[in-house]
TrEMBL record:
<dbReference type="InterPro" id="IPR026794">
    <property type="entry name" value="ADISSP"/>
</dbReference>
<protein>
    <recommendedName>
        <fullName>Adipose-secreted signaling protein</fullName>
    </recommendedName>
</protein>
<comment type="similarity">
    <text>Belongs to the ADISSP family.</text>
</comment>
<dbReference type="Pfam" id="PF15006">
    <property type="entry name" value="DUF4517"/>
</dbReference>
Length: 148
């Protein structure tokens, strides 16, 4: 009667934001599943080269807002807080640039799978928090009049 449930050791790996560096200047950030018409606050620890003490965000999309970039003294990672609007269903790929004082640019590419509003609620990875939810237009403008 000794039934034991064994979980794989790396089960926690799925709850963290995956960051893959491509060379020194491109970070592919995999955010996992998000939900359509939701806005998220995301905290990233980016392993950007230690040559940077101050990073300035350059953003060419209305769907990303970078709050602050903290450069820790130990040159390990830069903490970036940003807001992302999950503006379309399916595969979402948005990017922004962080530029250091020497003019070097680091491209941050955000990847997410965005679920439609009736496809369930995704489990968010650590460091991702929903901060706003836009209601569906259909909910407010239903032409169903109710029972007579």
């Amino acid at each position: 009667a000794g039934h034991h449930v064994h979980f794989p050791e790396d089960i926690s790996a799925n709850t963290e934001i995956q960051i893959q560096m491509k060379g020194d200047s491109i970070a592919n950030v995999h955010l996992g599943f998000l939900q359509h018409k939701h806005k998220y606050q995301i905290q990233l620890n980016l392993p950007i080269s230690p040559r940077s003490t101050s990073l300035t965000p350059i953003i060419n999309t209305p769907f990303i807002a970078v709050g602050n970039v903290n450069s820790p003294g130990d040159d390990k990672c830069h903490e970036v807080t940003l807001e992302l609007d999950a503006h379309k269903e399916g595969l979402l790929r948005d990017k922004f640039v962080l530029k250091n004082e020497a003019g070097e640019e680091f491209v941050i590419v955000l990847h997410a799978r965005v679920l439609g509003s009736h496809k369930g609620t995704p489990m968010l990875k650590e460091g991702i928090h929903c901060i706003h939810h836009a209601k569906d237009e259909e909910e407010d403008h239903s032409d169903w009049q109710g029972f007579d």
